[in-house]
Amino acid sequence: NLQSRSLIVANDISLVTTPDGWKDWETGIYRLVTIPITPYQQDHKDVLGLYSPGSSVARWQDGKYQYYGESGLDKFAPGKGFWIRVGEGDRILPRNINGETNTQTLKVLLSEGWHLIGNPFEHNLNFKRITFSYGSPLEEKPFLTAVREGYISYGVWGYNHPSYVMEREELQSWKGYWILVKKPCIINYRTTDFTFGVTSLVDWEVQLSVTQNTNIDSANYFGMAQIASVNLDNLDTEKPPSLNTSLRSYFLPKGSGAAFG
Questions:
Q1: What is the pTM of this model?
Q2: Do the bridges between strand 96-102 and strand 11-17 make them parallel or antiparallel, or are there none, so unpaired?
Q3: Contact 25/31 with Cβ under 8 angstroms?
Q4: Contact assessment for residue 247 and residue 217, using Cβ atoms and an 8 Å cutoff
Q5: What values do phi and psi take at 252, rounded to 5?
Q6: 64-74, pLDDT tens digit by residue?
């Protein structure tokens, strides 16, 4: 029973410094990020030095968005993704965040559905170091095997304003990502490579971009995979829930009732 398993994390008292590029963010636009530390400071806006009423933090939890000021919003912690919006008059200048950083493999239980995740380390994390544990007894499997066996959907969605982008090589530090879980499992952010498993599921693919005035949606992919079914399967990737009001294009397979990218 995955729901009853405890997950052990090794922490170290430390500090991290927010990326220099964050100071140049436009106001009023949500960015998808992660904070690779559990801050001693609990208030989200205080952690980032945000004070404008227009600045906000949001996170997808249990099938809906929770926003700054709501009691249910998760605190910043390694492995969690958050949307951050800088309000008028605010800037996120490089600042030290004191707290506890993760020093060993981080294990996070994921229930069925969409999740906002993030790289728990300050360095980029190759997919060889991202695995999934499931089954009875628990077995650790690489990303593509977990896709093929029906536990997660193909691809992890990052966000590069104004469009989502599918990532399948590495999770960048300080960036948040969407993942769609089909069956409950544990995601493992490893400190060493896990090399067993398949290296590719797709024979070829094409990325399709749609533009309208200054809006763009480049998160659309089609291609060929020998293991793919003629019907919907885990290689058909749904688009994550939208937060920004921007251009949104998608494939709509007959009878699916969902938007695919």
A1: 0.83
A2: antiparallel
A3: yes
A4: yes
A5: -125, 85
A6: 999 999 999 99
